[in-house]
Design a protein that fits this description.
By secondary structure, the protein is an alpha/beta fold. It has 11 helices and 10 strands.
């Protein structure tokens, strides 16, 4: 293993989830060699005593033991919100270290997560076509390659470099305008299977404050690629009603099984989108959402927002 990227973990007021995330991270193969930066967001104006107590409890969990080689707690005095916390935190760390691995407080990792992320970061560091590494994949029935590329970037257990994060465009209107000019809305919507473009419009109109849709759009418009594992190295445990935007109706996500071996990365793989793998995922999305009773695109948008907009 060459150089190891630091891990940034973004947390708020879910101590039980944070504990599970940290426990899983601590048994990763490279945890004892990895520096961990934990960003603890502050209370919102007028926060109730219970929320403040949960934030304090989350801090106690973080400080309860040494989870990685070294850990640095960045405690916000006021509430930045998830989007601004991630944007600021990622920017600061990639400027300092050149690369970064990013987690949130409800993501449980396979013990091979850090190994995969660091191998991929080192393998494709000089490949400008590659913008992002994702540790997550959906529990599809069809067998996927051990690793593959899709266009864009992702947001559940991910990694990137300073060179790629420099392309991040925080202005959603600029991104939407360019997508429309290029007439790439259907492609941006993952071949009309996910309403990503509507989510971007909703971010512009302040119906959501998603950093993730802007990150995806920024990489997509540069025709950059994201590397995925064929079997997920991440499981989301936040869909239990504990988060502001989590809830029921997404039980199929419990089908995610974590990868149980170290993932091999082929350094000579073609730097292009894997159309066969994309088709498998497109069909998976259509199958899972067309069966819902409240309308296809409504259901998809609610699904995505529950994942990436946990904090207002």
């Amino acid at each position: 293993m060459e150089k190891l990227a630091p891990v940034a973990l973004f947390v708020y007021n879910r101590p039980d989830h944070t504990l599970q995330t940290l426990e899983a991270l601590s048994i990763n193969l490279l945890a004892d060699q990895t520096n961990l930066f934990v960003f603890l967001d502050g209370p919102k104006d007028g926060a109730d005593p219970n929320t403040i107590a949960l934030i304090r409890e989350t801090k106690n969990v973080i400080n309860s033991r040494q989870w990685c080689k070294e850990q640095i707690l960045i405690e916000r005095e006021t509430n930045l919100g998830l989007a601004e916390s991630i944007i600021q935190g990622v920017t600061n760390l990639v400027n300092q270290f050149g690369s970064i691995i990013v987690l949130e407080d409800d993501l449980v990792t396979s013990k091979y997560f850090l190994s995969f992320m660091n191998k991929a970061l080192n393998t494709f560091e000089l490949e400008g076509k590659v913008a992002c590494i994702s540790g997550y994949n959906y529990p599809v029935e069809n067998k996927l390659p051990e690793t593959f590329f899709l266009k864009g970037a992702d947001c559940w257990g991910w990694a990137t470099w300073k060179r790629s994060w420099n392309d991040f465009e925080p202005n959603g209107q600029k991104l939407a305008d360019k997508i429309k000019i290029l007439k790439r809305e259907s492609e941006f919507d993952f071949d009309n299977s996910f309403p990503y473009f509507q989510m971007l419009l909703d971010q512009i109109s302040k119906k959501n404050n998603s950093w993730a849709i802007r990150w995806y759009a920024s990489a997509f418009l540069k025709d950059k690629l994201c590397l995925y594992p064929g079997v997920s190295l991440i499981k989301n445990i936040g869909l239990d009603g504990s988060g502001t935007h989590s809830g029921s109706g997404l039980d199929f996500m419990n089908a995610v099984l974590l990868e149980d071996h170290d993932v091999t990365i082929n350094s000579s793989m073609l730097l292009e989108e894997d159309r066969a793998s994309k088709l498998i995922l497109v069909n998976y999305f259509r199958k899972n959402f067309t069966m819902q009773p409240i309308g296809y695109f409504q259901r998809i948008e609610k699904f995505i927002l529950k994942f990436i907009k946990k904090y207002k």
